[in-house]
Predict the structure of Cytosine deaminase.
Amino acid sequence: MSTLFSNGRLAEAGPVDIKVRDGRIEAISAAGTAPVQAGETVVDLGGRLVLPGLVEGHIHLDTSFYGGKWIPHRPCTNGFDVRERVAFQHENMAISEPMDVRARKQLELCIANGTTAMRSHVMVDASVGLSSLETILTVREEYRSLIDLQLVAFPQSGILTSPGTSDLLDKAIEFGADLVGGLDPGSFDRDIEGHLAAVFGVAARRGVDVDIHLHDAGLLGVFTIEQICARTRTLGLEGRVAVSHAYALGDVAPDIAKRAADELARSGVSIMTNAPGAQSFPPVALLRAAGVTVFSGSDNIRDSWWPYGDGDMLGRAMMIGYRSGFYTDEELNAAFDVVTASGARALRLEGYGLKIGAKADFIVLEAEHVAEAVVSVPRSRSVYKGGRLVAQDGNLH
Ligand SMILES: Nc1ccnc(=O)[nH]1
């Protein structure tokens, strides 16, 4: 089965025809030159810009209440406190719609905005066991043709301070999770080496990648990053480990951030940031210049952590650029890279990009070029997954 997408515009190559067969890009040629085969479907892209599918690299499908009733945000009582936020999360989940209903709504929002690949953290701890993972695995199956979804077994209640979690993380991988996660080894479990030994133990035993939540500020956070880098290199996991949030990199003096960036680059450890509200956040340009893969995600969409989030990774690129002070075309292109090619590298996506042999996952919208798309965030888009139209102008097809 083949489709010819005629008269599209690639960011770097001008007007093109894109031939798609069995979900993959078979050929890209100058517009008007591709021969139309008998029985082939032709889709005229009308000169619009064709961009690769957006990569949602960090989301919590199990804990959002997007699409359900509005639950007002509760601030922490004494400054940002992960333990307190997790307690609020438990309370709110108890009064929300069923998890599968909420997860579907969130997935559909993201797909409609052009996300074609996603990494979601799913709570695995003594309180919920593997039940959240079981639900999200079922939902993943339903949406298999619309989105590629990786799941991280995420110890939201710590590992050492939540007895049984270490074994649960291991079981979660057997059960279908793709990666193992972690959470603030220093401030939450108060035992950096013990926590990391558990996380990397699962990674080594099960042969899975790692993605660790690290909200810890300042030098505690930087020290934790150094320990994560050391373990990554010891196990030869370069390119397979991510630190999410890494607020600390935005707290410390530039020379300390630069040294950490060099360590991250040499260890092949990527950094995820969502350009979070009032939190300090990693210096994206400095990290990229050092060779660190920086990727992004919505993180929380309408949940106990904050009321924001719309599942639009192009809008997220704008926020990253805005908070980073990115103004030049080169900088705006860098913000776009964070939500596309860098995301694909961090997630180790197979067949990503607008090239021959890649999956035909792309979005089509009205913009002169990438830089303009990042600042204008056009709402009107067509989203193609494996060459099939899956969403149009914010609605699933
Ligand atoms: N940003 C976060 C969302 C959910 N859980 C966390 O630990 N952190």
Q: What stands out?
A: Residues 60, 82, 156, 183, 213, 299-300, 305 surround 6-aminopyrimidin-2(1H)-one (CB under 6 Å).
